[in-house]
Amino acid sequence: AGNLKVASQFFDCARQLDLADRYLNTKSVLYLLRCGEIAKAERIVGLFARERDRVSDNLNEMQCSWYQNNLGDTLLGMKLYRQCFLQFENVEKHFEEFESDQYEFHRYCFRKM
Q1: Please, are residues 52 and 90 in contact by the beta-carbon 8 Å criterion?
Q2: pLDDT of residue 106
């Protein structure tokens, strides 16, 4: 419900008022993805990536699951199933790594007792 294109334009306008505001940048990226403007969304999210020439690799390394999950939803809507699957698979790997890290932390705590 609502006009996603206009909402995206408003969030982009708000984002440009304060380019260092991560919340506004994130919201702008989310609405761009909902509109299907993947290239523009990747350019904006790349402002906070370390290496701007490899944004998608950098976001995967930083375990940026919110972006990958929304990108997967966008690709699913565009019927790009292979790319969509890769994004969702990356999100699943992040959560598997979170779980593994928790188990390693608990083992470490028991050893230190």
Answers
A1: no
A2: 81
What CA–CA distance (Å, rounded) separates 25 from 96? 28
d(CA 56, CA 70): 13
By the 10 Å C-beta count (0-12 exposed, 13-18 middle, 19+ buried), 59 is classed as: buried
How many beta carbons lie within 10 A of that of residue 113, not counting itself? 4
Q: How far apart are CA 88 and CA 86, in angstroms?
A: 6
CB 59 within 8 A of CB 45: yes
The pLDDT tens digits of the residues spanning 32-83 come to 999 999 999 999 998 887 776 678 888 888 888 999 999 999 999 999 999 9
